[in-house]
């Protein structure tokens, strides 16, 4: 890793000078060749892991001359599905599959199958999907503190394809709103360091400057820093309920009030917590205000495809007032294809996913979500208590059910690697180095919490005794944390995506 060692020796160079140096170095063909060779070596190791079916099933690199029999196709899919489900079904995975009971999956699949031809772009042909989507928004808004739903001043929204799309849509909405109503041409958004990457993605896509603010020792956004960060160009401020990395809830009362006083938007990202926090609150857990009950909260995102227990591919983005939502829409009367409009980024959309989402919400109901939240929070309490008893580990912040832990004594990524070898799939975090597990209904099955803690204790003991056994992921995470040439990490990640699309 010559080029990487070289880069690490340059840590003393300030970041902007480093970016310029990196650009210059990459223009030299010999350096480019060297970097490419090193990337190839690092990624070659991952190739096998990412393509486990290469030797087992035929690869289709062009359309088969004659169609493959349906039964053969389904048999292949069943083999793959069974192998992959073994990982998440028994509760070895952080987040990812949030419900997963077979009766629930079969029910959603039936709802999907009944609606598989539906496309809400054609509201005249599929009014059932329009009904489902309007009701998904209404049910979610009511759950999240909307006193009034619909109308000019009530809470309204749209269904999107996931948390990222909901966030992108909200940020684009604020950009267009601020341009039209305030003449802001150089928009800025204030985002806590722990907010989801989707906000940075929105900043890049829509030409919004992202102003990052720090978090305190409990991993909650720093309100004083937020106040100082407001400028004439600020269009929106963001808070998470809770954040993906540490599961902590930002001080949304204070932040949203600040935004309200200054006439800027405030977005609560409840993608992860929208379908848990209202019920945690009812169960008596300490949940600070975070939703539309706060007058300064002007938009929210809540993911039905996470703890709403819908199939993957739906989320809800909501706004205070119909006027704000209209900045999200795309409409044109100029196209030769006719009068055209779409509420979200996509044109045609899978109405079947909205139908299955509606079916999930209506079939589970308040009682079902309350019971699910109770089981998840009780399991999380067992896991938190177990981690606290491992002297080498400490929990970050005061999480309810997304539990991040770090170590001052050991390399936490080596602990994660050991957990992987014991069958677990946890999330590696960054800055500070940590690992998290997002508790889902899969973990509430009998014995799962105990198995997690027993494996965690064994992993910590192993790393203590074998610090030289780095494994494969620990060095990659370590590298990403320490490499001053940030572009090298981005390049590496782009090449990783390339591999995903290689046949
Ligand atoms: C707090 C938060 N916001 C946004 C997202 C993005 O959601 P998605 O992966 O559905 O795009 C996530 C995903 O985990 C999240 O935890």
Summarize the structure.
This protein has helices spanning 2-8, 15-27, 29-50, 70-89, 102-114, 127-143, 163-182, 197-206, 223-229, 252-261, 277-282, 322-326, 351-388, 412-421, 448-465, 473-482, 486-500; strands spanning 155-160, 188-192, 209-213, 234-240, 265-270, 299-302, 315-320, 330-332, 340-342, 394-395, 402-406, 427-429, 434-438.
Structural class: alpha/beta
SSE run: HHHHHHEHEHEHEHEHEEHEEHEEHEEHHH
- Can you count the helices? 17
CATH architecture of the domain at 153-328: 3-Layer(aba) Sandwich
Give the biggest beta sheet.
7 strands, mixed
Low-confidence regions: none
User: Overall 3D geometry?
Assistant: globular
The count of DSSP E runs of length 2 or more, i.e. the number of strands, is 13
Please give the CATH class of the domain at 153-328.
Alpha Beta
Beta-strand proportion:
5-15%
How large is the radius of gyration? 24 Å
Structural features:
single chain, 503 residues, alpha/beta, Aspartate Aminotransferase, domain 2, 7-stranded mixed beta sheet, 4-stranded antiparallel beta sheet, 17 helices, 48% helix, 12% strand, globular, binds pyridoxal-5'-phosphate
């Amino acid at each position: 890793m010559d080029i990487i060692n070289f880069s690490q020796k340059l840590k003393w160079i300030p970041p902007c000078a480093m970016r310029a140096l990196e650009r210059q170095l990459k223009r030299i063909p010999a350096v480019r060749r060297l970097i490419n060779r090193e990337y190839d070596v690092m990624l070659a190791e991952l190739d096998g892991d990412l393509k486990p079916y290469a030797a087992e099933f035929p690869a289709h690199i062009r359309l088969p001359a004659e169609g493959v029999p349906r039964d053969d196709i389904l048999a292949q899919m069943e083999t793959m599905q069974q192998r992959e489900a073994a990982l998440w079904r028994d509760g070895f995975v952080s987040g990812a599959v949030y419900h997963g009971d077979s009766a629930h999956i079969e029910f959603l699949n039936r709802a999907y199958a009944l609606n598989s031809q539906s496309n809400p772009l054609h509201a005249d042909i599929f009014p059932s999907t329009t009904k489902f989507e309007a009701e998904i928004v209404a049910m979610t808004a009511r759950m999240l503190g909307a006193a009034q739903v619909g109308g000019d001043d009530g809470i309204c929204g749209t269904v999107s394809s996931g948390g990222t799309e909901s966030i992108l849509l909200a940020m684009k909405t604020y950009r267009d709103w601020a341009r039209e109503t305030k003449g802001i041409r150089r928009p800025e958004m204030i985002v806590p360091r722990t907010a989801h990457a989707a906000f940075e993605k929105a900043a890049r896509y829509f030409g919004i400057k992202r102003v990052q603010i720090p978090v305190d020792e409990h991993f909650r956004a720093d309100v004083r820093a937020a106040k100082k960060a407001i400028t004439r160009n600020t269009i929106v401020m963001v808070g998470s309920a809770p954040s993906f990395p540490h599961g902590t809830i930002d001080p949304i009362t204070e932040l949203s009030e600040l935004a309200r006083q200054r006439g800027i938007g405030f977005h609560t990202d409840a993608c992860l917590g929208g379908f848990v926090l209202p019920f945690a609150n009812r169960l008596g857990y300490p949940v600070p205000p975070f939703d539309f009950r706060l007058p300064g909260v002007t938009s929210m995102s809540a993911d039905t495809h996470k703890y709403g227990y819908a199939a993957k591919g739906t989320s809800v983005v909501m706004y205070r007032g119909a006027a704000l939502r209209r900045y999200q829409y795309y409409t044109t009367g100029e196209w030769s294809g006719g009068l055209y409009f779409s509420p979200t980024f996509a044109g045609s959309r899978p109405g079947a996913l909205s139908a299955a989402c509606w079916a999930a919400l209506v079939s589970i109901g308040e009682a079902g979500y309350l019971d699910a939240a109770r089981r998840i929070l009780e399991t999380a309490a067992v896991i938190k208590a177990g981690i606290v008893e491992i002297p080498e580990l400490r929990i970050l912040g005061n999480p309810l059910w997304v539990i991040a832990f770090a170590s001052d004594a050991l390399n936490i990524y080596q602990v994660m690697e050991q957990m992987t070898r014991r069958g677990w799939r946890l999330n590696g975090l960054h800055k500070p180095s940590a690992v998290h597990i997002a508790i889902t209904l899969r973990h509430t099955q009998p014995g799962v919490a105990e198995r997690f803690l027993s494996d965690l204790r064994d992993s910590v003991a192993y790393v203590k005794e074998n610090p030289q056994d780095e494994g494969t992921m620990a060095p990659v995470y370590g590298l990403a944390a320490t490499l001053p040439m940030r572009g090298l990490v981005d390049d590496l990640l782009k090449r990783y995506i390339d591999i995903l699309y290689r046949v």
